Amino acid sequence: MTKLTRLALAGLFCLSLAACATQQQDLTPPPAKPVDAKTKLESGRR
């Protein structure tokens, strides 16, 4: 019974380490670059 308990605790410890080791990806898009005056004039955007 002791070996089974130790094995279960070791498994839970390994799972917790694996969960903490993986990082969430940052899926937010980069901020849009501001449009300069020349581009505004050429494209007609405001």
From TrEMBL:
Residues 35-46 have a biased composition (Basic and acidic residues). The keyword Signal applies. Residues 25-46 are annotated as: Disordered. Keywords: Signal. Residues 1-21 form the signal peptide. This is Lipoprotein. It comes from Bosea rubneri. The lineage of its organism: Bacteria, Pseudomonadati, Pseudomonadota, Alphaproteobacteria, Hyphomicrobiales.
